[in-house]
């Protein structure tokens, strides 16, 4: 009996020292003020009010084994993930970069794992109710003198000891694989981002050189056209337009901002760079979040295993003194265990929320990068319709401008466009 009691005291001391280590680690990984602000946002509150309602309606008596995780049907992630997977499928014709597709895939898998963790946390709370009942019943007892009460306590402990640890659903090996996969994606994204920056820099330099060549070519072209145009009657009317076209283009180029000077193709490169940059930042945050979550999961997993071990030892021993020590151990660390469980839940929810926000920013960049109808193109269409109507009008047959338009077509449209830019703006 003395030996058994000594073994129990030694094991309980080890448990206390482990709990102190866990407490120190928990202090290091506590949610900071920035996280607390995120918890108070409207989108966060709305999202997780829906989650808790969904969790309460779902049965958690049986969780999938760790080996069946890839085939597990994810309900909450499909319900809460934004944008949803079907939305991404519909806009695949927007020509995503393959790294962006990998990013969205990583976010989807991370959300699935977050859901599994939330279900495991919920199941852990359900299982831990047995320990809470033991603590409540022990407070009503006096010196554990009632054998009937002690028998009920032992039954509760026996039931807890036989339960499977809910946090074993994701193993440390799986967390390590997730970490390595996301790190590899992060390296690819950052490498692509730097490459795009270099391309944009080279394009700016080449654009400056090209603009000088363009001025020379425009000047040469206008002089050549003027020489040819003055040999015909139409040239007498068109010559001022040619000059206006040239100077209008020059004025338009000077009045545009530096972003418009880079042209649409350069804009696409910069848009892709912004998409890659946001994706890289999102993956970086995801890596850090999952590293923190994996540490918290491992600590709580060890605590549950420790509780199960001392509960099993208490059942095997069957002594009142041993039962009293075990219950005292549970009472001492009850609040600490629940705080760690709450911290893990908050980190998991925040990870889900961060993934959603990052995905939304990337999608917005992709949508903004899509080409819109050029304003000059719209003007040309409008003028074309006007000229066609004028050509059909009998009263305009003798009009010199209409006659010129009839034979010069698109050339005259450009003349009118640049006249408008010069004199109406």
Lay out the secondary structure.
Blueprint: H1 2-28, H2 33-39, H3 42-57, H4 76-80, H5 85-90, H6 98-140, H7 147-162, H8 172-229, H9 233-255, H10 258-261, H11 263-317, H12 320-368, H13 375-392, H14 400-408, H15 410-423
Helix pairs in contact: 1-11, 1-12, 6-7, 6-8, 6-11, 6-12, 7-11, 8-9, 8-11, 9-15, 11-12
Subcellular location: Membrane
Family: Belongs to the UPF0496 family.
Transmembrane segments: 209-227, 233-249
Structure summarized in a few sentences:
The chain is mainly α.
Describe the structure.
The chain is mostly helical and 425 residues long. The chain has two domains: 2-187 and 281-368; 381-425, no CATH class. The protein is 82% helix and 0% strand. The chain contains 15 helices and no strands. The chain has helices spanning 2-28, 33-39, 42-57, 76-80, 85-90, 98-140, 147-162, 172-229, 233-255, 258-261, 263-317, 320-368, 375-392, 400-408, 410-423. The radius of gyration is 36 Å and the shape is rod-shaped. Belongs to the UPF0496 family. This is UPF0496 protein At1g20180-like. Its main location: membrane.
């Amino acid at each position: 009996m003395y030996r058994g009691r000594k073994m129990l005291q030694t094991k309980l001391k080890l448990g206390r020292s482990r709990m102190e280590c866990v407490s120190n680690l928990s202090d290091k990984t506590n949610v900071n003020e920035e996280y607390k602000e995120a918890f108070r946002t409207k989108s966060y509150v709305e999202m997780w009010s829906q989650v808790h309602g969904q969790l309460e309606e779902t049965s958690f008596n049986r969780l999938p084994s760790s080996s069946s995780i890839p085939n597990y049907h994810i309900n909450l992630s499909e319900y809460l993930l934004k944008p949803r997977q079907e939305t991404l499928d519909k806009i695949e014709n927007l020509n995503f970069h393959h790294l962006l597709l990998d990013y969205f895939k990583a976010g989807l898998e991370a959300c699935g794992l977050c859901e599994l963790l939330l279900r495991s946390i919920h199941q852990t709370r359900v299982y831990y109710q047995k320990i809470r009942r033991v603590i409540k019943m022990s407070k009503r007892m006096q010196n554990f003198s009632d054998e009937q009460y002690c028998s009920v306590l032992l039954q509760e402990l026996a039931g807890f000891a036989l339960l499977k640890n809910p946090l074993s659903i994701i193993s440390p090996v799986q967390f390590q694989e997730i970490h390595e996969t996301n790190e590899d994606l992060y390296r690819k994204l950052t490498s692509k981002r730097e490459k795009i920056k270099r391309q944009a820099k080279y394009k700016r330099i080449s654009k400056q050189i090209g603009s000088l060549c363009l001025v020379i070519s425009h000047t040469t072209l206008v002089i050549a056209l003027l020489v040819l145009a003055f040999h015909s009657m139409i040239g007498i009317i068109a010559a001022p337009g040619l000059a206006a076209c040239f100077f209008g283009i020059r004025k338009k180029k000077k009045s545009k901002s530096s972003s418009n000077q880079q042209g649409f193709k350069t804009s696409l490169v910069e848009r892709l760079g912004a998409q890659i940059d946001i994706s890289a930042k999102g993956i970086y945050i995801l890596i850090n979040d999952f590293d923190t979550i994996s540490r918290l999961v491992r600590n709580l997993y060890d605590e549950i295993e420790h509780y199960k071990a001392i509960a099993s030892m208490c059942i095997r021993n069957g002594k009142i003194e041993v039962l009293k020590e075990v219950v005292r151990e549970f009472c001492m660390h009850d609040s600490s265990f629940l705080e760690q469980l709450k911290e893990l839940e908050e980190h998991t929810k925040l990870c889900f929320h961060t993934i959603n926000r990052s995905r939304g920013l990337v999608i917005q960049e992709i949508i903004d990068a899509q080409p819109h109808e050029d304003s000059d193109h719209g003007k040309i269409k409008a003028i074309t319709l006007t000229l066609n109507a004028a050509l059909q009008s009998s009263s305009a047959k003798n009009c010199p401008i209409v006659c010129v338009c009839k034979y010069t077509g698109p050339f005259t449209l450009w003349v009118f466009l640049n006249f408008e830019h010069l004199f109406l703006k």
